[in-house]
Amino acid sequence: MGWVDSGSPGIRCYQHGTRKHGVRFDRCYYIHHKVDGKILDEKIGWMSQGVTLENAKGILAELKLNKANKVGPRTYKEKKELLRQEKDSARLNKEAAAEAAKIEAIREADANRTLSEYWSESYFPAAQRSKKANSWSKEETHFRLWIEPLLGKLPL
Hints:
By secondary structure, this protein is of the alpha+beta class. The chain is built from 4 helices and 4 strands. It folds into 2 domains: 2-71; 112-156, no CATH class. The termini are far apart. The mean pLDDT is 90.
C-alpha cells in the first residue's frame, strides 16, 4: 500500500499491501527524528510483531529526552545495542554464577573425600580409559604399594 498517516508527529507508518494482521493490513512503525544534524528514519517494528503506536511514541519520547539530557542512547540503533549488551552481560553473569556454584559443590563434595576414594572413583577409571594397559597397571601398583599406605586415608 505505502505510507499512511500515523496521527502522531515524529512517527511514520508504512502499511503493507498484502500482509494482514487480523482484519487490518499489517503496519510498520518508524520514528522520524534528527540527531547530530542528520535526519533519521529508524524502523521500530511491525504490528504483527507486537509493536504499537504507543510503543513508538514512548521510544521517540525517550530518545528525545536522552538527547536533551545528553545521557543514554540517542538513536534506536544505540538503544537496541545497549539492550543487547545488557542481555549478554546478564547471561554471562548467570553462567559464571552457575559455574561458581558448580565448582563450590565439587569442592564441598571433595572436602570429605580421601585420596583413596578419589583414586578409585575418579582418577583410576579415567586412567584405564585413556592410557595404555602397561601405564595404568604400573600406576595402580605404585599407588597400592607406596602412596595408599601413607596418604590414602588423608582428606583431599
